Amino acid sequence: MTVAPGSFGHWLRYLPVLPSGTAVHLYNGQLKDPQTVHAAVLNIDVGTRDLQQCADAVIRLRAEYEFSQKPDQVHFHLTSGDDIRFADWYRGQGFRVSGDKVLPAPKTVEQPTHAVFRRYLDQIFTYAGTLSLARELSPAPLTNVQPGDVFIRGGSPGHAVLVLDVAEHLTTGRRYVLLAQSYMPAQQIHVLRNPDVSGSAWFAVDPDKPRFDTPEWVFKREELRRF
């Protein structure tokens, strides 16, 4: 499908991937179990802590896109509902969590470099998740699925899978989606493999079905959201 230059969907199309056959590793270097659900691994760090899980991977990719466009527009809500802006954070307005409260905590003023941005994201990953991300996104109809949309179920457990790209059959109009996820424990973001179609990473979209199956999670068709 056509995507507008400069859009999130256009940016996602140019994400780098590691060589074919690369295994998915956890944050601690161990192998993901199983190794049968991925078609490719994105060339993007997972960090050294158990933070960049499912919703965090979606946040990471959206944040990287926004950082590449205009760093000061990056912001995400914590599970508490508090909106933490990167611009405030690097300018010295940090925070600390005490029980259920998020309190101001002055920090060193820094420049908006990517290394500083990456530390900001680890703070977001620690206190955000599927519940907060689901609240940030708007419902989207499965019939009109777009690159950059998110299948998400907020909760504990919950899960989130990002729509990397969308293709549409020229004759039937049926849509097919390319999907990416992280999982628990934190692991490299990977493109999902369709277990029902040998050698394929594309998943057919059937809006008439009440559910949408992915290799490690089943979503309801109403659980598609959009930034």
UniProtKB/TrEMBL annotation:
Pfam families xrefs: DUF4846 (PF16138)
UniProt protein name: DUF4846 domain-containing protein
Organism classification: Bacteria, Pseudomonadati, Bacteroidota, Cytophagia, Cytophagales
